[in-house]
């Protein structure tokens, strides 16, 4: 059972890293010499930025995909998505950031279930 979980984890990790890097390559190709693309009354905005920090520029670390991005792009991570509603707008982020936040959210949801922190330890 533990081996199956480990294989699922590795497969999800590889798919996540692969999707993130494909999305970054597309963003570079489409947005490189563009002021950006606004969708749905500027609720979704695609704009290419280079981030020397981590998630929303909050540090120098980050997930595996962002670490690989730093190796390939001179220490910076490619970010290209921001969300907004009226005057409120998120920072610019990428798919690796989405996967990290989704993973944390899933861990929190799992820990809030009855017996969630004990499940899967045997």
Task: Provide structural commentary.
- The protein is of the alpha+beta class.
- It has one domain (2-104).
- It has three helices and four strands.
- It has a four-stranded antiparallel sheet.
- β1 and β2 (44-51) form a beta hairpin.
- The protein is globular, with a radius of gyration of 17 Å.
Task: Name a few traits of the molecule.
globular, alpha+beta, 3 helices, four-stranded antiparallel β-sheet, 4 strands, 122 residues
Write a concise synopsis of the structure shown.
This protein is α+β, with helices and mostly antiparallel strands. Helix content is 47%, strand content 18%.
The number of distinct structural domains comes to 1
Number of helices: 3
Cross-sheet strand order for the largest sheet:
1-2-3-4
Silhouette: globular
Structural class: alpha+beta
pLDDT < 50 runs, ≥5 residues: none
Radius of gyration: 17 Å
Write the layout of secondary structure elements.
Elements: H1 2-31, E1 37-39, E2 44-51, H2 64-72, E3 77-85, E4 88-89, H3 95-112
Antiparallel strand pairs: 1-2, 2-3, 3-4
